[in-house]
Amino acid sequence: MSDTGDAGRQGRDEGPDGPGDGIRDEIRGSALGRAPVPLSVLDLVTVGAGSTAGQALRTSVEIARLAESRGYHRHWVAEHHSMPGVASSSPAVILAHLAAHTSRIRLGSGGVMLPNHAPLAVAEQFGTLEALAPGRIDLGLGRAPGTDQRTAAALRGPARLDEAADEFPRSLGELIRFLDDDFPDGHPYARVHAVPGPVQGPAGRPPIWLLGSSGFSARLAGQLGLPFAYAHHFSAAGTLPALDLYRQSFRPSAVLDAPYAVIGVAALAADTEREARAQVLTGALSMLRLRSGRPGLIPTPEEAEAYAYSPLEREFVDGRLADIVYGTADEVRSGLDDLAKRTGADELMLTANAHGGDVRLHSYGLVADAYGLPVEAPRAG
User: Fold this and answer.
1) I want to staple 284 with a disulfide (CB 3.0 to 4.6 A). Which of 177, 178, 185, 317 is the partner?
2) Closest by alpha carbon to 102, among 143, 137, 53, 51?
3) 10 Å Cβ neighbour count for 17?
4) CA 222, CA 243: separation in Å to the nearest integer?
5) What is the pLDDT of residue 26?
């Protein structure tokens, strides 16, 4: 058995034009309105000071329903651990809840940090999601822990801490085998079945994406012919090199005949540029505290404005703000247009980080209006 050489097998589903077209159609989005590329949502389920995880999760439902009604292509949830300011430690659980409150928008993980989990467990979780929301689930996978090393050790067990990231290609290959239920005869897992899954009869299959903020996943995604999502919002300086590496490494597969790259973009629109800056400053201060070992809830705009920044802290915060597209709706549209042109990204996935859920919800609506995206009434429930 090849560890990852058969990853393209995830495109075995046949569409009207031949093998793999059904999966490819699920991967590629369509640009609507005046948007240069499809627009999507990356949801960190942030928890602001004075709020609760329950309120943050309810906001996620509101955002997913707004995104669906306004023509955003997909809504992804990221996996993070031991961070008071986010409530997205269990993407599969959140996605099941979002699936119950939406009907069309694609839902997925941005991503599941595969080294934290047994491949069989991931295959069963996402097989369940696919059964609940057929044809709407994406399985995005990352190789980072989504947390600090101590928490990663608590998740994986200390014995696996050093080996987990290095084992990513093997774990990926194993996960794909479980999803397809096709371990060869004689393999130790030949009689182990992920359920829900093909052992129960014909079953759908969530497309696999590789996520990253470095060249490793970019190269691997290209070699396997898989779609790739780059964390521009986390590491903007590496965006162009990673996308170039992905495109140069790309080999056509049953999944894709050409590269398909999404970039995650920190973007927030508000009624005024001043209000937008006050909101994104809350996320910058939260990241500053996280990087300095003081994680907490997302501060209020007032707290972020009054904080006594040292020169080094101000430099860090200014650097963060420089990588965020923020301002009025027209300013954000202009910034996103420029980013799409500079990077050649096939899709932009917007993450609106701010203290209040109402601010994030308003931002996605303003961006949709700026691009003239369709307006449909969200379904009841």
Assistant:
1) 317
2) 137
3) 10
4) 10
5) 83
Model pTM score: 0.91
Q: Are 19 and 252 in contact (CB under 8 A)?
A: no
d(CA 247, CA 257): 12
For β-strands 106-109 and 137-142, DSSP reports them as parallel
For position 153, what pLDDT does the model report?
Answer: 80
Look at the block and give the residue holding tokens 């203290």: 355
Hey, is 227 helix, strand or coil?
coil
- Taking only the tens place, the pLDDT of each residue in 286-321 is 999 999 999 999 999 999 999 999 999 999 999 999
Report the SS3 class of residue 276: helix
Q: Sorting pLDDT into bands at 50, 70 and 90, what band is 18?
A: very low
> CA dist 328 to 5, 271, 286, Å?
46, 6, 23
With both helix axes pointing from N to C terminus, report the angle between 91-100 and 53-69 in degrees, rounded to the nearest 10. 50
Contact 358, 262 (CB under 8 A): no
Does residue 157 or residue 100 have the better pLDDT?
100
Give yes or no for a contact between 325 and 335, defined as CB atoms under 8 angstroms apart. Answer: yes
Place of tokens 């589903």: 13
Distance CA 153, CA 155 (A): 5
User: Rounded to an integer, what distance in angstroms lies between the CA atom of residue 27 and that of residue 24?
Assistant: 5
Provide the 8-state DSSP code for 378: P
Indicate the SS3 state at residue 284.
helix
